[in-house]
Specification:
By secondary structure, the protein is α/β, with parallel strands linked by helices. The chain contains 13 helices and 7 strands. β1, α5 and β2 form a beta-alpha-beta unit. Bound molecules: S-adenosylmethionine.
Length: about 270
C-alpha cells in the first residue's frame, strides 16, 4: 500500500505533471530525466492511469521551457534566488542546482505536507507552506541573496483574472526589476478543457484566460519573450526528442500550441 493522499481540488492537478514527468523518465529519449518522479508515482497510492492524452507530454515540455528561463537567470546570477510559487512535487531544484543558487519552493499547506514526505530542506533550499496570493513569504525572499527570479508554472491559470492581475501588480510593486516567468492560456485552449482527457479525470478547471501576454504590461511588467511548444528556446529545441519537435510543427496551428505560452517578464524598475 502506497502513501495515501488528500489534496484540495487545484492541488490534485499537481499529480498530472508528476505522472507526465515519470512517463517521460521511463522513455529512452527523456526530456527531463526525472527519475525521482518515477519513485513518487510508485510511492503514492493514486490511480495515475486515468491521466491520458497530450497534456502529459505538454507538462514535460512546459517544465523544460521554464527550466531554460531559470538556467538563463542562473548563468547571469549564479548566486541569486529562485522562488517557485506552486511547486507541487516538482524536482526543478534538483535539476538546476548549480551549487550556489538559493531556492524557495512554496505551495499550499496540504501540498507542502505531501511534499515534505519526499523532500527535505537543505542548505540553500527551503520549502514554505503558503499561498501565492499571500504576502507572508515576501520577507523570506528578501532575506535571501538577490537578484530574485520568481516563477509560477500552471498555477495562476486556475484562478480568476481579477485575482491574478492583483497578484501580478503586487509582485511588480514589491519586487521591482525582477524576472518573472508565468504561463498563460488563450481562450481557444481554455474553452476546450472539458474535451481534454486529463481534465476529464479531475474536477479542477482553469479560469484565467489571457490571449495576449503583452496586455499584462500595464500591471507593471515588461514582456521579454513568450515561448510556445512550437517555438522553444533554440538551446533546448536541440535537446528535445524528434517526436516532440515534429509534433510541435505538426500541431503548430492547434489551440494548445498557439495559445498556451510560457512567458518571461521583468517587473518595472522602482
Ligand atoms: C498543475 S499543479 C502545478 C505544480 C507544479 N508547478 C508543476 O508544474 O509540476 C498546480 C499547483 O498549484 C498549487 N496551488 C494551488 N493554489 C495555490 C496557491 N494559492 N498558492 C500556491 N500554490 C497553489 C497546487 O497545490 C499545485 O501544486
Amino acid at each position: 500500500m502506497g502513501e495515501t493522499i488528500s489534496l484540495g481540488t487545484v492541488q490534485e492537478t499537481l499529480l498530472i505533471p508528476l505522472y507526465g514527468r515519470a512517463r517521460d523518465a521511463r522513455h529512452r529519449s527523456s526530456v527531463l530525466g526525472d527519475k525521482k518522479a518515477i519513485e513518487l508515482v510508485e510511492a503514492i497510492d493514486y490511480d495515475f492511469s486515468k491521466f491520458r492524452g497530450p497534456s502529459l507530454a505538454g507538462s514535460v515540455l512546459r517544465a523544460s521551457l521554464f527550466d531554460e528561463y531559470v538556467r538563463g537567470f542562473l548563468r547571469e546570477h549564479p548566486d541569486g534566488t529562485v522562488v517557485d510559487l506552486g511547486c507541487g512535487l516538482s524536482t526543478r531544484f534538483d535539476r538546476l542546482d548549480n551549487g550556489r543558487v538559493h531556492w524557495i519552493d512554496l505551495d499550499l499547506e496540504d501540498t507542502m505536507a505531501l511534499r515534505r514526505r519526499f523532500f527535505q530542506d537543505r542548505d540553500r533550499y527551503t520549502m514554505v507552506a503558503g499561498s501565492i496570493f499571500d504576502t507572508d513569504w515576501f520577507a523570506l525572499v528578501r532575506e535571501r541573496p538577490g537578484p530574485v527570479f520568481l516563477l509560477s508554472e500552471a498555477v495562476l491559470l486556475y484562478f480568476p483574472e481579477e485575482q491574478v492581475h492583483a497578484t501580478l501588480r503586487r509582485f511588480a510593486e514589491e519586487f521591482p526589476d525582477t524576472a518573472l516567468a508565468i504561463d498563460t492560456g488563450g481562450s481557444m485552449m481554455m474553452n476546450s478543457q472539458d474535451r481534454n482527457p486529463v481534465f476529464q479525470a479531475v474536477s479542477a478547471r482553469m479560469q484565467w484566460i489571457c490571449d495576449a501576454p503583452a496586455t499584462l504590461e500595464p500591471l507593471g511588467l515588461r514582456l521579454r519573450e513568450s515561448r510556445t511548444f512550437a517555438q522553444p528556446q533554440p538551446s533546448i529545441a536541440r535537446t528535445w526528442p524528434l517526436r516532440y519537435r515534429l509534433a510541435g510543427k505538426l500541431f503548430s496551428r492547434t489551440a494548445p500550441v498557439t495559445t498556451y505560452k510560457v512567458n518571461l517578464f521583468t517587473t518595472e524598475t522602482a
